[in-house]
Amino acid sequence: MKRRPEPELMDGAEQALAYAQADFSESNGLFMRLLAEQQPGPLRGARALDLGCGPADIVRRFLRAYPDATCDALDGSAAMLEHARAALDPLPGVAARCRLLCECLPSPTLPVAHYDLILSNSLLHHLSDPQVLWQTVRQTARPGALVLVMDLMRPASAGWAEALVATYADDAPAVLRTDFRNSLFAAFEPQEVVAQLAEAGLAGLEVAVVSDRHLAVFGRLEEESRPQINANERK
User: Fold this and answer.
1) Tens digit of pLDDT for each residue in 100-129?
2) In what order do the strands lie in the sheet containing 47-51?
3) What is the pLDDT of residues 166-200, one digit of tens each?
4) CATH superfamily of domain region 13-221
5) Are 70 and 98 in contact (CB under 8 A)?
């Protein structure tokens, strides 16, 4: 099935509210289980970057699971970040370790070779140019940093997409059903993601199908995967 891109930003108030109120515990729980498999021990002093954080459910789960870590959480939608802040504020022990950033990719303000973990859930399919995500991974991660990117996987046919919508969003508000359908059409197939990683110089990362509608990219960033920083860039 041919890919059909969708808008990059989910910045409408109704859309942001629907996502903030939705129950994504199944998929977000899967993300956290994948992270625990890749990083079974504590993350003392680790600095994480969450790209496309939305209403920050992954951020909250991550900071609760790893109480010695911090996280910069980036999203281009101010409406989404309003809900993220509202969710974090009642949790002072979590909120103090999270910095919310309203920015789009590529971001000129993110530090180079800084983060110990790069996390992203359900951002990739929103991007018209997936390389902005992969190049951000290369630029911001420290050598040996753990990368975990999970996203929807494009079904083989429109009929399969409709079956997934009926299975997982039948009782959801109309805006969520529509967005889920559009996101399935906008998602990438695993072999497309493999090609993206090769183009980005991240071929060492693994691509795996992790559910009937999700794929994941994971692994550690090797030294040669990072872009070289010349003397002028260090100033």
Assistant:
1) 999 999 999 999 999 999 999 999 999 999
2) 98-102, 70-75, 47-51, 115-121, 141-152, 214-220, 206-209
3) 999 999 989 899 999 999 999 999 999 999 999 99
4) Vaccinia Virus protein VP39 (3.40.50.150)
5) yes
Note whether 107 and 37 are within 8 A (CB): no
Phi first, then psi: what are they for 160, rounded to 5°?
Answer: -65, -40
- Is the distance from CB of 46 to CB of 116 less than 8 angstroms? yes
CA 120 to CA 143: how far, in whole Å? 18
Closest by CA position to 165, among listed 187, 144, 184: 184
Candidates 106, 64, 60, 61; CA nearest to 84 is 60
ω into 92 cis (within 30 of 0): no
This prediction has a pTM of: 0.91
